[in-house]
């Protein structure tokens, strides 16, 4: 709490067997946390500022390296829609998706790319996801009848999800209730203690570095933006 804005940048590992053009088993992630915030807008603003600042720096310091890729840099506009609005847009789409869009289901890559296209090929913030779809630590919006949490994903052209974040649940009774329902109270007692003995409203997000490179360079496969790509079944013994 003494440091209201903190971040880390380093390797991240994923255990799931993802075989796609935007997944790696090891990748780099920028993770940021903000204290004393109760607004999802604050999280989105930091996401946007980070994205714009890094992109401006890259374009100003490495113009020759990115000259061929300028057409992939989206204009400054952005769109903010709720998860519920996103699902309605997808249901009314003229195309048929491999995964049928339904409220309560996660958005797939095909859905994310369509939403970006529908909104004019600009970055799109999707906010307020279903309560049962997200992890226990995301803040309950206490709404209804469609129960949601204060979560946000940033979708960008050519990639889909670039950033994901949320307000964190700092209210101990809400955390205790949800962990009990999930049967995780014993496993996460240490987490409850952190909130029990001192916490403040806070939130944060993560941005995949290789996906960011994919976006600004217009590279189709994430394995082409990292020197030594590590992915499922790539290490044969």
From TrEMBL:
Alphabetically ordered keywords of this record: Aminoacyl-tRNA synthetase, ATP-binding, Ligase, Nucleotide-binding, Protein biosynthesis
GO CC field: mitochondrion
InterPro entries documented for this protein: Aa-tRNA-synt_II, aa-tRNA-synth_II, aa-tRNA-synth_II/BPL/LPL, Asp/Asn-tRNA-synth_IIb
PROSITE patterns with a match to the protein in the record: AA_TRNA_LIGASE_II
Highest taxon of the lineage: Eukaryota
Keyword Cytoplasm recorded: no
Keyword Nucleotide-binding: yes
Signal sequence, start to end: none
GO molecular function: asparagine-tRNA ligase activity; ATP binding
One GO BP annotation of this record: asparaginyl-tRNA aminoacylation
Aminoacyl-transfer RNA synthetases class-II family profile domain ranges (all copies): 6-227
Protein name: Asparaginyl-tRNA synthetase 2, mitochondrial
Gene that this polypeptide is encoded by: NARS2
